Amino acid sequence: MNTTEFAQKLLVGIKDFLAWLGFPRHIMDTLDEVIFLILIIITSFIFAAIVHAVSVHITKKILKRKNISFLTSLIKYGALRKLTAIIPPLIISALLPVGFDTHSRWFVVCDKITWIYFCVALIFSVNAILNTVGDTLRNNKQLQNRPLKGFIQILQFLFSCVIVIIIISILINKSPFNLITGLGAFTAVIMLIFQDPILGLVAGVMISEDDMLRIGDWIEMPQNNINGIVTDISLDVVKVRNFDNTIVTVPPYSLVSGSFTNWRGMCDSGGRRIMQEYTLKLDYIKPCTPEFLERMKAFDKDLAQFITQKQEQAAEGKIANTDNPDGLVNGTIDTNAGLLRAYLTIYLKRHPFVNKDLLLMVRILAPTENGLPLQIYCFSSNKNWPSYESIQAEIMEHFVSVLPAFELYPYQSSGARETIISSYIESGKIDLSEIDGIPWHSVLPTENQDKTEERK
C-alpha cells in the first residue's frame, strides 16, 4: 500500500468516525478536511523527528570511531536538524490533493503555506551545508589562506535572493522568470539597497585573486586606527584585533579602495628590520693618530685585527674601504667615526640574533643642525615583538656605551643644570668631587685633580 492509498483510507476513516459521532453532513465535509490536515502535519513532523534522531545517532556513532571534520561540522551547525525540516512540507504537499479539492480555497492556501515553509527551511538547510563545507575546506592546508568565508557568504546571499524571488512568485501566482526579467526596472533601487554586499562581493574577489589579505596577517591602516592581526574575513566586514586587544571592523572595499600595510612579507622573510641611529657631535670627529689606533687595538680583538690589516694595506699603498678583497668590513682607520663604523659592523656580524644573510650595514646620514647621524641597519632573526625589541635595545645600548671609547659623544640638548656644572668646571673654583652627576667620560679624574691643585 502506497502513501496515497494510506491517505485515502485515513480520510475515509475520519469521515466514518465523524458520522458515528453524529455530526451533520455540512459540518462533517469541512471538519474531516481539517482533521485530515492536522493528522498529516503531525505525522510528517513525527516522521521528520524520527529521521533526525536516527541520522544524529548514526553520525555520533561514526564520530566515536573516526574523527571526520565534515560530520563534526554537520553537528556543530545543526545541519541534520535543518535538513530534516524540509521533510514535513514535502509530505504535506504530496498528501494535500488526497484530502482537498485542488480548486478549493483551503487547498490553495495550504499549498502556498507549505511551499513557502519549504523554501524557508531550504534556505536554512543550504546555509548550514555551505557553512559545513566552508569549515571543511578551511582545514585544507592549500586553502587555509583563502578568504573562504567571504565566498561562502556570497553563495548564501545569491541562493537566498533566488529563494526570496520564488517565495514572491508563489504569493502572487507569477512565474519566477517573469519576476527576474521585471527586475531590470528596479536595478537602481536594488543597487542602493544591496550596495554594501555588492561592494563586499567585488572586494572579496579582488582580495582573493590578488592575495592581498589572509587571516593571521598583521596589517596597519592608520586612517582607520588599525594595527593588529586579521581574525576574520567575510562578505561585509574584516575584523582586526589590534595589539591593545581592541577589535576594529572595516568593510572589505575600504581595504581595496584605500591603502594599508601588510607585514606578511616581513613575517615570511628571515628577519625583522632594525633601523636606529644616534647623532654624533661634529666637533668630536677627528683623525686617528697612531697612538689612538694602538689604544683601540686593546679595546676589541676583532677590531685589533681589522686595524692591523688596514695598516698593512696602507703600508702597501692599497686603499680599499669598500668591498675589501681581504674580506674586511666596510670602515676606515682614518677617523674615529670610520673606526666606529667598522667596529659596529663587526659587532653586528658576530651578534647571535642578527641575520647575516640579509642586508647589514652601518651608515652615515646627512648632517643636521644637531650633528652627524650614524645609523645601524640590520635584521633581527627573531621576529617575535618582545624579543625583537629586546635585541634592538641591546644593540643600541651597546652602541651608545662604546662611543666614549672612540672619543665620540651623542648630541644632547643641554639644560640649566648642565650649564651650571660646565661653569663650575671651567672656573676651577670648586672641587669636582663635590659635584654630583658629572658624566664619567667628561673629564679625567687625575688631570682634574692636578689642575685643581695647581689653582690652589
Verbal overview:
This protein is an alpha+beta fold and 456 residues long. The chain has four domains: 3-207, no CATH class; 209-265, SH3 type barrels, CATH 2.30.30.60; 272-406, no CATH class; 416-455, no CATH class. 58% of the residues lie in helices and 10% in strands. It contains 18 helices and eight strands. Strands 4-3-2-1-5 form a five-stranded antiparallel sheet. It has a three-stranded antiparallel sheet with strand order 6-8-7, covered by helices on one side. α5 runs antiparallel to α6 and α6 runs antiparallel to α7 (148-172). The longest helix is centred in the N-terminal third of the chain and has 41 residues, at 25-65. The radius of gyration is 41 Å and the shape is elongated. The termini are far apart. Residues 444-456 have low confidence and may be disordered.
Low-confidence stretches: 444-456
Largest sheet: 5 strands, antiparallel
Quote the distance from N terminus to C terminus. 130 Å
Structural class: alpha+beta
The coarse overall form would be elongated
**What is the N-to-C succession of helices and strands?**
HHHHHHHHHHEEEEHEHEHHHEEHHH
- With helices defined by DSSP (H or I, 4 residues minimum), what is the helix count? 18
Strand order of the largest sheet: 4-3-2-1-5
Helical content stands at 55-70%
Please give the number of β-strands. 8
- Share of β-strand residues: 5-15%
